Amino acid sequence: AQKVTQAQTEISVVEKEDVTLDCVYETRDTTYYLFWYKQPPSGELVFLIRRNSFDEQNEISGRYSWNFQKSTSSFNFTITASQVVDSAVYFCALSRGNTGNQFYFGTGTSLTVIP
Amino acid sequence: SAVISQKPSRDICQRGTSLTIQCQVDSQVTMMFWYRQQPGQSLTLIATANQGSEATYESGFVIDKFPISRPNLTFSTLTVSNMSPEDSSIYLCSGTKREGPQETQYFGPGTRLLVL
User: Fold this and answer.
1) Is A10 helix (H, G, I), strand (E, B) or coil?
2) pLDDT tens, B51-75?
3) Which residues of A are less than 8 Å from B103 in CB distance?
4) Which end of chain B is more exposed for a tag (fewer CB within 10 A), N or C?
5) Chain A partners of B89 at a C-beta cutoff of 8 Å?
6) Is A32 in contact with A95 (CB distance < 8 Å)?
């Protein structure tokens, strides 16, 4: 069975602090994809990153970085020097194989960046 | 990315009525889906919208309550039938787009539904 766990329900940080959002997944598939989405107060889900199960290389995009570790089944997301605009709910998701159709979402982490 | 639009963006409805939500995607999207996000919750897949045939529903969702149509590649509708306050949610349309060897799922802005 597939499952995504985001243990942190809510996080508050002061602007300019770094923050890491945790994501742990479960799957028996050998091929799978991991995603992070941002949902600002407006409600729209914004795609941030996709990582496939064969690529454990960490990725950095501006202030965002992702740490994928198959050994611990984790795909953590770090925001460096957080800004108020980063305040949103962040969802980690898992999809099976290469079809991209069956998505399993975590329960989300609500991040509040305090000015 | 993919361009996905939905309408209405929000609505307030009376119990017992039905609401149809429309979703328009750009031509590069392959598969289309409908999700529900109840207040403060994560996303739950309702169904896969199949072009020209009946949608594929997930456990707990039935066609009589959530009829879905997809008459062509780029358009789909979801109807929430005989609404009750428990149907108050955000309903999201999504589509997958192939980018190289991989697919990514993009989401519309959502329809916020409040049932009184």
Assistant:
1) strand
2) 888 998 988 999 999 999 999 999 9
3) 98-100
4) C
5) none
6) yes
